[in-house]
Amino acid sequence: MLRVDQAGEYGATRIYAGQMAVMGDRTPAARMIAGMAAQEERHRRHFDAMIAARGVRPTLLQPIWDVAGFWLGAATAAIGPEAAMACTAAIETEIDNHYREQLEQLGDSDPELSEAIAEFRAEEIEHRDQALAAGAERAPAYPVLSAAIRLGCRAAIALSKRI
Protein backbone atom coordinates (compact mmCIF):
# COMPACT_ATOMS: atom_id res chain seq x y z
CA MET A 1 0.00 0.00 0.00
CA LEU A 2 2.76 2.41 0.86
CA ARG A 3 4.52 1.79 -2.44
CA VAL A 4 1.49 2.62 -4.55
CA ASP A 5 0.39 5.54 -2.37
CA GLN A 6 3.82 7.15 -2.46
CA ALA A 7 3.94 6.64 -6.23
CA GLY A 8 0.52 8.24 -6.62
CA GLU A 9 1.40 11.27 -4.55
CA TYR A 10 4.68 11.62 -6.44
CA GLY A 11 2.79 11.43 -9.74
CA ALA A 12 0.36 14.09 -8.53
CA THR A 13 3.22 16.47 -7.73
CA ARG A 14 4.58 15.93 -11.24
CA ILE A 15 1.17 16.53 -12.87
CA TYR A 16 0.79 19.81 -11.03
CA ALA A 17 4.38 20.77 -11.91
CA GLY A 18 3.56 20.26 -15.58
CA GLN A 19 0.38 22.29 -15.29
CA MET A 20 2.13 25.15 -13.52
CA ALA A 21 4.96 25.11 -16.08
CA VAL A 22 2.40 25.82 -18.79
CA MET A 23 -0.04 28.03 -16.87
CA GLY A 24 2.37 30.08 -14.77
CA ASP A 25 1.08 31.43 -11.49
CA ARG A 26 -1.07 34.42 -12.37
CA THR A 27 -4.51 32.94 -13.04
CA PRO A 28 -7.06 31.81 -10.47
CA ALA A 29 -6.75 28.24 -11.82
CA ALA A 30 -2.97 28.33 -11.44
CA ARG A 31 -3.25 29.58 -7.85
CA MET A 32 -5.73 26.78 -7.08
CA ILE A 33 -3.35 24.24 -8.63
CA ALA A 34 -0.44 25.61 -6.57
CA GLY A 35 -2.44 25.07 -3.39
CA MET A 36 -3.33 21.52 -4.39
CA ALA A 37 0.29 20.86 -5.34
CA ALA A 38 1.46 21.94 -1.90
CA GLN A 39 -0.90 19.45 -0.26
CA GLU A 40 0.22 16.67 -2.62
CA GLU A 41 3.85 17.43 -1.77
CA ARG A 42 3.02 17.12 1.94
CA HIS A 43 1.32 13.76 1.26
CA ARG A 44 4.36 12.56 -0.72
CA ARG A 45 6.80 13.56 2.01
CA HIS A 46 4.68 11.74 4.60
CA PHE A 47 4.63 8.53 2.54
CA ASP A 48 8.37 8.93 1.79
CA ALA A 49 9.02 8.94 5.54
CA MET A 50 6.78 5.92 6.12
CA ILE A 51 8.50 4.00 3.30
CA ALA A 52 11.91 4.72 4.81
CA ALA A 53 10.82 3.86 8.35
CA ARG A 54 9.20 0.58 7.29
CA GLY A 55 11.82 -0.49 4.77
CA VAL A 56 9.42 -0.58 1.82
CA ARG A 57 10.91 -0.45 -1.67
CA PRO A 58 9.46 2.36 -3.80
CA THR A 59 8.10 1.49 -7.20
CA LEU A 60 10.69 0.97 -9.90
CA LEU A 61 8.38 2.90 -12.21
CA GLN A 62 9.01 6.25 -10.53
CA PRO A 63 11.12 7.58 -13.46
CA ILE A 64 8.22 6.82 -15.78
CA TRP A 65 5.69 8.49 -13.45
CA ASP A 66 8.02 11.49 -13.28
CA VAL A 67 7.91 12.06 -17.04
CA ALA A 68 4.37 10.83 -17.67
CA GLY A 69 2.94 12.92 -14.84
CA PHE A 70 4.68 16.08 -15.96
CA TRP A 71 3.56 15.66 -19.58
CA LEU A 72 -0.03 14.82 -18.59
CA GLY A 73 -0.11 18.00 -16.55
CA ALA A 74 1.48 20.09 -19.29
CA ALA A 75 -0.80 18.67 -21.98
CA THR A 76 -4.00 19.27 -20.05
CA ALA A 77 -2.92 22.79 -19.10
CA ALA A 78 -2.07 23.52 -22.75
CA ILE A 79 -5.64 22.62 -23.69
CA GLY A 80 -6.87 25.13 -21.13
CA PRO A 81 -7.72 25.67 -17.46
CA GLU A 82 -10.88 23.56 -17.68
CA ALA A 83 -8.88 20.62 -19.05
CA ALA A 84 -6.36 21.01 -16.23
CA MET A 85 -9.28 20.88 -13.80
CA ALA A 86 -10.73 17.88 -15.65
CA CYS A 87 -7.42 16.09 -15.10
CA THR A 88 -7.60 16.77 -11.37
CA ALA A 89 -11.26 15.74 -11.14
CA ALA A 90 -10.60 12.47 -12.98
CA ILE A 91 -7.54 11.52 -10.98
CA GLU A 92 -9.04 12.45 -7.63
CA THR A 93 -12.15 10.39 -8.42
CA GLU A 94 -9.92 7.35 -8.85
CA ILE A 95 -7.81 8.17 -5.80
CA ASP A 96 -10.94 8.53 -3.69
CA ASN A 97 -11.98 5.02 -4.76
CA HIS A 98 -8.46 3.67 -4.24
CA TYR A 99 -8.08 5.14 -0.76
CA ARG A 100 -11.59 3.97 0.24
CA GLU A 101 -10.70 0.42 -0.80
CA GLN A 102 -7.44 0.60 1.15
CA LEU A 103 -9.21 1.81 4.28
CA GLU A 104 -11.66 -1.09 3.99
CA GLN A 105 -8.77 -3.54 3.61
CA LEU A 106 -6.80 -2.11 6.52
CA GLY A 107 -9.60 -2.04 9.03
CA ASP A 108 -7.91 -1.65 12.42
CA SER A 109 -4.69 -3.41 11.41
CA ASP A 110 -2.49 -0.33 10.86
CA PRO A 111 -3.78 2.80 12.62
CA GLU A 112 -0.85 4.98 11.48
CA LEU A 113 -1.37 4.20 7.80
CA SER A 114 -5.16 4.34 8.09
CA GLU A 115 -5.01 7.77 9.68
CA ALA A 116 -2.77 9.12 6.91
CA ILE A 117 -4.92 7.63 4.16
CA ALA A 118 -8.14 8.97 5.70
CA GLU A 119 -6.68 12.46 6.07
CA PHE A 120 -5.24 12.52 2.56
CA ARG A 121 -8.42 11.04 1.08
CA ALA A 122 -10.43 13.94 2.52
CA GLU A 123 -8.05 16.40 0.85
CA GLU A 124 -8.20 14.52 -2.47
CA ILE A 125 -12.01 14.68 -2.38
CA GLU A 126 -11.70 18.41 -1.72
CA HIS A 127 -9.42 18.74 -4.77
CA ARG A 128 -11.95 16.89 -6.93
CA ASP A 129 -14.79 19.09 -5.74
CA GLN A 130 -12.76 22.26 -6.29
CA ALA A 131 -11.85 21.14 -9.81
CA LEU A 132 -15.48 20.42 -10.66
CA ALA A 133 -16.54 23.79 -9.26
CA ALA A 134 -13.80 25.46 -11.35
CA GLY A 135 -15.21 24.12 -14.61
CA ALA A 136 -13.71 20.67 -15.15
CA GLU A 137 -16.85 19.47 -16.91
CA ARG A 138 -16.59 22.34 -19.42
CA ALA A 139 -13.28 20.98 -20.77
CA PRO A 140 -13.28 20.04 -24.45
CA ALA A 141 -14.40 16.43 -24.88
CA TYR A 142 -14.73 16.11 -21.11
CA PRO A 143 -16.24 12.60 -21.06
CA VAL A 144 -13.47 11.21 -23.25
CA LEU A 145 -10.70 13.14 -21.50
CA SER A 146 -11.95 12.12 -18.07
CA ALA A 147 -12.38 8.46 -19.02
CA ALA A 148 -8.89 8.27 -20.55
CA ILE A 149 -7.25 9.88 -17.52
CA ARG A 150 -9.18 7.66 -15.11
CA LEU A 151 -8.13 4.56 -17.06
CA GLY A 152 -4.51 5.69 -17.00
CA CYS A 153 -4.73 6.31 -13.26
CA ARG A 154 -6.13 2.81 -12.63
CA ALA A 155 -3.35 1.33 -14.77
CA ALA A 156 -0.69 3.30 -12.88
CA ILE A 157 -2.08 2.05 -9.57
CA ALA A 158 -2.10 -1.57 -10.76
CA LEU A 159 1.44 -1.36 -12.13
CA SER A 160 2.83 0.40 -9.06
CA LYS A 161 1.43 -2.33 -6.81
CA ARG A 162 3.44 -4.93 -8.68
CA ILE A 163 6.62 -3.27 -9.92
UniProtKB/TrEMBL annotation:
Q: Which domain of life is it from?
A: Bacteria
> EC top class, in one word?
oxidoreductase
Q: How is the cofactor bound?
A: Binds 2 iron ions per subunit.
Instruction: Identify the cofactor(s).
Output: Fe cation
| Residues where Fe cation 2 binds | E40, E92, E124, H127
InterPro entries, from UniProt?
Ferritin-like (IPR012347), Ferritin-like_SF (IPR009078), Ubq_synth_Coq7 (IPR011566)
Instruction: Give a single Pfam family match.
Output: COQ7
- Record's catalysed reaction(s): a 5-methoxy-2-methyl-3-(all-trans-polyprenyl)benzene-1,4-diol + AH2 + O2 = a 3-demethylubiquinol + A + H2O
Q: What is its EC number?
A: 1.14.99.60
* Locations listed in the record: Cell membrane
- Pathway info: Cofactor biosynthesis; ubiquinone biosynthesis
Q: Which PANTHER family does the UniProt entry name for this protein?
A: 5-DEMETHOXYUBIQUINONE HYDROXYLASE, MITOCHONDRIAL (PTHR11237:SF4), COENZYME Q10 BIOSYNTHESIS PROTEIN 7 (PTHR11237)
Role of this protein: Catalyzes the hydroxylation of 2-nonaprenyl-3-methyl-6-methoxy-1,4-benzoquinol during ubiquinone biosynthesis.
Q: What is this protein called?
A: 3-demethoxyubiquinol 3-hydroxylase
Q: Which organism is it from?
A: Sphingomonas colocasiae
